[in-house]
Design brief:
Blueprint lengths: L6 H52 L11 E2 L4 H4 L19 E8 L2 E9 L23 E4 L2
Antiparallel strand pairs: 1-2, 2-3, 3-4
Length: 146
């Protein structure tokens, strides 16, 4: 009698391995998206902290002109070096930029703001400011001044 595996046993083993591999690949992608979202939230909090330090020193938030959305790189002269080492970049694509908008103008100074970003895997809470939807991909996460 010959010892060995039948064709059916080999096919079952290959099928099980293929299913486990597919599950692993899907889980790995999901973990990566959530990880990038966590980094984005951390970046936004770092930006928020720098903006708050700016307000503490100046009495108002940086201006964007007429309360319009602008890339964070346009605020680098106001924030970088004094309040943060550099403007953070998106962990997946440097073309996905963080955006800033000054709000609550009074006497030419701004007393509120919103910072927005794009999150891949999460649906953010609705208690934040309205993010900049004009971006591609549309921003879906925003934090506002306290």
């Amino acid at each position: 009698m010959k010892k060995g595996f039948t064709l059916m046993e080999i096919l079952v083993a290959i099928s099980i391995i293929a299913i486990l591999t597919a599950i692993g690949i899907v889980s790995y992608g999901s973990v990566n998206r959530r990880s990038r979202d966590t980094k984005r939230k951390s970046d936004v909090e770092q930006i928020r902290s720098a903006i708050e330090m700016y307000r503490t020193d100046n009495g108002y938030y940086p201006s964007t002109g007429a309360g319009s959305w602008t890339d964070m790189s346009n605020l680098s002269a106001d924030l970088v070096a004094t309040y943060m080492p550099s403007i953070p970049a998106d962990p997946k694509d440097p073309d996905y930029v963080y955006r800033y908008k000054a709000t609550d103008v009074s006497g030419g100074s701004y007393y509120g703001y919103c910072v927005s970003a794009y999150l891949e895997a999460e649906t953010p809470a609705s208690n934040s400011c309205t993010p900049d939807a004009s971006q591609t991909p549309a921003h879906n996460f925003g934090v506002k001044s306290p």
